[in-house]
Automatic annotation (TrEMBL):
Species: Capnocytophaga haemolytica
Transmembrane segments: none
Gene3D superfamilies named among the record's database cross-references: LmbE-like (3.40.50.10320)
Name the UniProt record assigns to this protein: Bacillithiol biosynthesis deacetylase BshB1
InterPro entries according to UniProt: Bacillithiol_biosynth_BshB1, GlcNAc_PI_deacetylase-related, LmbE-like_dom_sf
Molecular function GO labels: deacetylase activity; hydrolase activity, acting on carbon-nitrogen (but not peptide) bonds, in linear amides
GO biological process: bacillithiol biosynthetic process
Length: 238
């Protein structure tokens, strides 16, 4: 299966929080989307790896993604090394995405910045023919995505561009709320974390609302790019 967009997240729920609305919008336009989680989020204070796996499948269903996989890297301790790069390269070559979305380039959680650089490096290396990989015993062809973009997470990074998700904010929120173990629940007896606070859950909406305000729409998601963004004509700009 060839995918148009492949979104990576260090943990289950990263993709939904960072670019869930954008993915829902692209899917509505007929694009094939995949999600790959690097870890199972097993170090999370609330829930468990098993619970988050079930939640991630529900979020996949809500968004309408074509595939979702988990690479099982070690939460909190994975590194940007040859072994992990090759695992990501195999997935890039398998699904041949034109666009890859990945974690924020800088963030509160150390896995986000690490995951961002790991995936970005793997995207470049995936285009080198002398790096050999196999899929079920068959040699894979080199493939380099045309674009690598980074969504924004905890920190208010300055976006290089934003995507209008006004008609898809509910899809995003529903996908986020699929992770019931992680976010605000007044009835929960589990320990409080920075993302289980009611303020954080509300911030998902008001950040999207504020980014939308900047471009004259109701809601938007922001991204940073690794190169200069180009447009065909001035009339393509909102």
């Amino acid at each position: 299966m060839k995918l148009d967009i492949l979104a990576f997240g260090a943990h289950p729920d990263d993709v939904e929080l960072g670019c869930g609305g954008t993915l829902a919008k692209e899917i509505s336009l007929g694009k094939k989307i995949g999600i790959i989680d690097l870890t199972q989020g097993e170090l999370g204070t609330r829930g468990s790896a098993e619970i988050r796996l079930r939640e991630s499948e529900e979020a996949k269903r809500i968004l309408g993604a074509s595939i979702r996989e988990n690479l099982g890297f070690e939460d909190g301790f994975f590194v940007n090394n040859r072994e992990n790069q090759l695992e990501i390269i195999k997935k890039i070559r398998q699904y041949k995405p034109e666009i890859v979305l990945c974690n924020a380039i800088d963030d509160r959680h150390i896995d986000h910045g690490k995951g961002s650089k790991l995936v970005s490096d793997a995207c470049f290396l995936s285009g080198l023919r002398r790096i050999e990989t196999l899929l079920e015993g068959t040699p894979q062809e080199a493939w380099r995505p045309k674009h690598v973009y980074h969504y924004i997470q905890w920190k208010n990074l300055q976006p290089d561009f934003v995507v209008d998700i006004s008609n898809f904010i509910q899809n995003k929120l529903d996908a986020v709320l699929a992770y019931a173990s992680q976010f605000y629940d007044a009835k929960s007896n589990e320990p409080t974390t920075p993302i289980s606070d009611k303020n954080f859950l509300e911030s998902v909406s008001y950040r999207a609302h504020d980014l939308g305000r900047l471009i004259g729409t109701d809601f938007a998601e922001g991204f940073t790019a690794e190169r200069v963004i180009a447009v065909d004509t001035l009339t393509n700009l909102k």
